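G., before I forget:
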Amino acid sequence: MILLDGKKLAEKILDEVKKDVAGLDEKPRLAIVLVGKNTAIEKFIEQKKKAAKSVGIDVCIYPFDQAISTNELRKRLSEIVHEKKNTGVIVQLPLPEQIHVQYILNAITPEKDVDVLSSRAIGNFSTGRSKIMPPVAGAIKALFEEYGIDYKNKHVVILGAGNLVGKPTALWLLNEKATFSVIRSSTRHPEEFLQQADIIISGIGKPGFITGNMIKDGAVLIDAGTSESEGPSTGLGVKKLVGDVDFESVAAKCSFLTPVPGGVGPLTVALLFKNLVAISPHEYP
Amino acid sequence: MILLDGKKLAEKILDEVKKDVAGLDEKPRLAIVLVGKNTAIEKFIEQKKKAAKSVGIDVCIYPFDQAISTNELRKRLSEIVHEKKNTGVIVQLPLPEQIHVQYILNAITPEKDVDVLSSRAIGNFSTGRSKIMPPVAGAIKALFEEYGIDYKNKHVVILGAGNLVGKPTALWLLNEKATFSVIRSSTRHPEEFLQQADIIISGIGKPGFITGNMIKDGAVLIDAGTSESEGPSTGLGVKKLVGDVDFESVAAKCSFLTPVPGGVGPLTVALLFKNLVAISPHEYP
């Protein structure tokens, strides 16, 4: 079994981003909209700040009260998006219950939407007209390329269809001539799909859900469960980084596996900054 | 085996559309952009004209030369879209080889995009912010509802990922908490998927590809192959309406089956006009 070293690949990507940033006239700046407070979210923000600092990108945090209304947040977000210095804007998920999430995300214009979460950015991505990829899908693609894993002639099973992992991964594979299945909590016999999968991409946020007896020998396991634990579907109670994969039993049977932490998570952060530079309006000198 | 009577359901939907149209101050008008000439396309146009007439909707055909450039077509299409009298605009597919299809489709604004093919309309649909559905997906949903076919707790296998059938169907099921697989010409063992499928939705445009021995007893077969034969992937040579399903052998084994013609085809046309009325800017008196 080979561990897919997301941390190392993230560093490689961030090195490239750093070089790109050095060549720019003006520094890109990532605006992070943060509603409410909790320790899990703060941890993710810290990771992004640290990565940004390492490549010379500015980060500007815009904190808002937990009780803010959808209309007020949308208004404030529009101002943040129109601020010229912010070359990329993300809204840290999950948002509080009272917020209409997609309406908020749609205030981000496609040329600043580095998370690819607005309807327009998703539409552009889905029709092959986006310069950037949703960060988790980009992270998985980068891993496959780095480790020479063929995914186009395999059966990929996507576990969960959340906005941060399952859905963008499905949109990506739909355009990639790949063969894939999407299974979710309503699926009657998930084990039948997992047993047949050459590649499993999991983003359900259920610690240790996938065990060795569920998979076939030599399967490739991409555990993006922790990324999804940032997402709206799993709530705010996550205290530490845990994946969907039961590491010991799966490691004994699979061919490739992403560790948690150190797998998809840091790569997703690196891809976010790669996106920021890729859609930066600043020209090279 | 029960035949899914798309023609009858289409008439029912068109009756409702007719009532809606009668209540409008101004008639909706569908603009159809037609590039080049061929008998298959003209047949599809005739079907749309006939349905439009039956419900009191005007149709305006805009013919262009087969040799038109992408830039010229985009410019002309923009004018057609901005013409106030055109409340819906579609581009008849396939377009000639030299045309950049998605760039053309993106000239249609979401509020007139009754085929849901522009990046913006697809993005809105994909994020649950569309009032209308892509016509083929809407047609399939209407059939499932009419015949009480549960698709959310089944395994749906989508054959092909073209812009008119497979892709919009996958986007729809992604948002519907359904369990589904997407297989295509590159899939190594399509028969393994077909054998397990509770519901098969086919849009590959390969006459008689699915035979009885490939499916399981009691499967539901949605044959949208002819709709896809309008699409860019299959070329212009289609002379008659044939489906992806080998009717005799499949009919002997499945539980529900759409005939060709008289299945998904006429329903898709009906859904197009349902969409036109649903996004009509005209208010009821």
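Strands of chain A lie at 2-3, 29-35, 58-64, 88-91, 155-159, 179-183, 199-202, 220-223, 256-257. The CA atoms of residues 160 and 204 of chain A lie 5 Å apart.

More on Monday.
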